[in-house]
Structures
1.
Amino acid sequence: MFGRPNSHSMSGQSSPSNSNSAWPDGRPDTIFFESAPGPAPVSMATYEQTGDLTEGSGHQRPLMALCIIPELQSRRREDYVRRAKRFAKEQSVKFIMHQMQEKHHRAQVQQVKRAQALLLLSRIYVGSIAADVTEEMLTAAFQTYGTVKACNMGFDNATRKHKGYAFVEFELAEAATLAIDGMNGYTIGGRNLKVSRPSNISNPNPVIDELVREGSLYSRVYVANVHPQLTEFELRSVFEAFGSLVSCKLEPDPTVPGVHCGFGFIEYSTPESAIEAISAMHGFDLGGQLLKVGRAITPPVVPVSAPPSALPAAAAEARRLVMRKLMMRAAPPRVLLLRNMVTPQDLDEDLESEVSAECAKFGSVQRVVILEQADSVRVFVEFEDSAGAEAACRAMAGRFFGGREVRADLYEQELWEAGDLTQ
């Protein structure tokens, strides 16, 4: 209970003699808690220390004791440093390979996106189709702009008649672009066709915009509906009247040797020549067939087929070999691969510095990567330029290192940049 002390009682009653000395509002001078009635408190026993005090795990040690660093013996110090250097090298190799794998993965994702964008650019929507028009008739009508891969009409399940629209997919995006310009409003079966891009192409599409922007850097012309008996030489002789040609290539028919597919690309040295050729030759009757000529909208190195993952195994392998050769031409190798230098058991920490010092005689060495495998050791030396790598390859091939004949080869730059060190 609440109360204040006085000389007569601890009952919590206020003394009349002290009422005048209280606070002006009548509150007590001192407020305290009074213990409830109960047993008397028990006094605590007092103990004296008779033995030594033992410090436990929770004892607070002096700060100076924590700062004392034990002295390393010479042998243990060398062992610590050797293990640390080996660990650092292993982590460095893992970091480099991880970076290369990430770069390769990003390149693959970008390649798939570009291939998907090309597939979108190669499809067109065809509406307002007459009831008696078939898929075969549509294919024949659009075939003059390029190879038609598929023509799919929408059919009504109840009546088994088409709904008046279709999607046409070409081999090339350029064929689809020309078909939209040339076939929109074209009359088949008494009705004017409505031809446009499918509505599922988002606008703007950054990947498509990038392809078109890269394609605009080249003065390339797409030519379709070429007579099957005309050759590249004859086609070149016609189009070179508008300016100097860089290349003239008709797409070969994969099923018939020596026969082209009726379309191809012509590249001029100047964009003005390409514009003049398109303006003059589009719709020109060459050998009884009207040429379809338009601006190439994609760069020459972009794949025009499905993504690599969707290709059959044999086609994927063939494409990989072709791309390797192209990359070798575009980017000369700057990496030297040394094999049969040491075994995994003989690998030591001095190999990297020895290889770097020896190869520095032939060019500027950027880094040395040592890949230890189960039964072999591969040493990769990256030079600043291809000349240093080639000179080192010629000098290192056939030399002996520790009684072993070294095998030296140039490593393909594409594989190195993709993080593939196993080829």
2.
Amino acid sequence: MVILSLRFLAEVPILYYLLGIMLCAIFVNTGFYLHFESRPINNPVEDTSEALDPDEDTSKALSQGADASKSLIVSDDPSKLPDAPVSVNYFPSRECNYACGFCFHTATTSYVLPIAEAMRGLRLLKEAGMRKLNIAGGEPFLHPKLLTQLLRYCKEELGVESTSIVSNGSKIREKWMRDNCQWLDILAISCDSFNPETNINIGRGDDGKNTDRLFRIAEWCRTYGVKFKLNTVVNVYNWNEDMVDNIEKLAPFRWKVFQCLIVAGENDDETRKRDARKFLVSDAQWRTFCEWHKHLPCFVPEDNNCMASSYLHLDEYMCFLDKGEGMITQSQSILEVGVKAAMQEIVWDKKSFLERGGIYDWGRSDMKNVQQSACGSVNKSGSVQNMGKKGACDGVNRKDIDF
């Protein structure tokens, strides 16, 4: 058979022989192509979508004011949402032992929420995105046990990033500081003058010992690792007082300086608990005080425009308060309608909150290797660090915010 096949091939003209080889080659190649073409392609499609940075996106969303809620947020962290109550000022009681003439949160009630309800409200705030809780008043240290319960709950149960208290300093005791320092990040003391007579004229006590207490509390803060802060209201009695020397000695990490403010419904006329009109300063007087003190690294001034609607205030019933323009507005309680619904009933200017420096070094981690010193900080090498000097209405760079 093989011999016959070879003989047949020998009789075929060479042209037909070559043509047959070419046809066979084409047939084989076509078969391979069809075989592989019919198989599915397993290579993944490259995702060219741009990754979103949740922190940067949140900061942009907050700065968009009323339209922030329309922004896209890719995060499971509620504090990164555009309307999150990141920093809340809670007034658990309006009661106070001082009678400051310009006070804008006066003792119109003596109500104090039951501790279980207060804790429930704090949990709602944390779940909505609260990172910092500031407790003010009134005078918070009129209720020291309540303070302990609130602070401990915030830190141990809720894991709140930062807790702080604003106090007039008259009721603070070292034992309380020693027993509660582990739950407190910042202690702010209201200090409007280092002159006993000026303090008495303002209504900030009547014993003339404000300065002595202030230095004692500053030392306790250093001893127990709590960041020490000062708050000052510039008014008609202190606008021309040079406080530089005493501020440098006290060495607060932050000195908030406010222009005396009128809040309709609280201190706007003689029918209220306080009438702050006689305490107001002119813009020129305000600028004079700022010029004298602006070189201090801890100096953080806030004029009336900065303060209006840039704070989230929560009253003794856990209702948000809008102390911006016009008559003070009160929301429904977050205990009844929730945080989001209550916040929609007031105005919170998120842009102004950021611009005034609402986010700052509010934790205690930076105290491990830094010793507090003259209105700023000194590192181990002895060089001075600026811990947040800001001009009027200035704030931190939003790109640097760990939001």
3.
Amino acid sequence: MKNYKNHFLNLLVVSILLSLLYSCNGDDELTSNVVNPKAEFIMTTSDTNPYLVAFTSNVTDRDSLRWDFGDGESAIIAHPTHTYAETGEYIVTLTAFGERGSTPAVVEKAVIITLNDPTAEFTSSASTDNPLILKFTANSTYGRSFAWDFGDGTASTEQNPTHEYAAAGSYMVTLTVTGFDGTTPASITKEVSAGTVLSKLQGTVIGHESSWNDNPNTYVTAALDGNFETFVDGPTAEGYVGYDLGAGNEAVVSLVKYAPRKDYDYRMVGGEIRGSNDPDYLNNYDVLYSITNAPATGELTEVPLTGTGSYRYIYYFSSDGYGNIAELEFYGGGGSEPFDSGVINMNDWTVQEATAGVSVDISGNSINFSGAGAWAGSHIFQEVTVEAGTYQLSGTITVNSVIDETWSELIFSTDQPQPGEDFAPGIPYQVSYSTWNESPTEAGTYDLKDANKGGEFPDDGLYSFDAPKTFYIVIKSGSNQPYDLTWNDLAFKKVD
């Protein structure tokens, strides 16, 4: 019996020792597998409100976190913003908590809240529909209120106003920006020009080849078709689209408009508007504008450009957005002088439909005709008066997409066109773009003399008048096939 009791006691001791051993091994194994969180953060002070700071955390292996902003306020979200009540220095603490048994990560940084004087700067751009309407954009920092003097006796307190001038001319515009209490207001005065017509710049389409899955509907031409529903989708992350304006047609880009692919607006952030005069334009270029915010979907974002040179190659480039863009338009003119269209007034065209199916878009110095075919047609016209002397008719026609059975013709006529009727005055036409007469159908931009096949347009475009004369300039266009073409920089100017 004694031996039995001793044996039992020995077994009990061994069991206790084994339990303790396994327990210690388990704790060691648990401790060795714990991953401690890591934390870091950055701070960005608003350029409009010096009291507002945005915090962005970079935390790994955490279950929760907590911010202490140093003024008694806190937050538990990853990327908070915080508005301080007073100037001064505050110690901001970010604490990241990990799994059970881990050591929290603690990061402290100082943020200094100071008052900054506001700055004043602005840009302006003329409407492409009415050049007397100017859109003003305040590019200011730390401003709380804005006061505009448009130089014609009118004013505004909007941050980014639109103003219509009564007459063309130059005006001295002043912007005064007032900041927070205790700061000094800033003011700037610039000369702006109202009534200057911006030409819609077009040329030979340039861009990356093919598309994602080689889908023709997402080739680069989708950015130039006037349709927000279509979009460019490159075969790789890098993509671009734009125009080669042609040798001798270099232009100053004064305004760019763009719209993103629906649901992929973020892919345009970081994209660039570029200009170049080098055939190797992808490697040798000037950045005219960098896109820093996602643009609105389904509408054109307008950005005025200032201080740019003249460029032959103009394009949008994206290094990692697959070239995703729905629409792209450039406006400007050759050199720095405003475009002179002579007796033609681009705001005075009357548009009439002959047979439903052709749309007409008149923007800047561009007139676009497009339709689905089925012998649809439209015409536009305006009345002009010339003095005795010599006038020159000039311009270009851009073939965006033409298959066959398409016409677009310019006529001088004393007869006024009528709606719902094909205009056929029974007289010679001046310029006749006609696929039946072998006008070019390959995409590109052509001088009137090169596009004309069948009209009486002289190679030098000169017309002489012995006495003053009033007549209509008419442009008619239509097709039996889907098509899209544009008249550019149409002018009829007295040269002698």
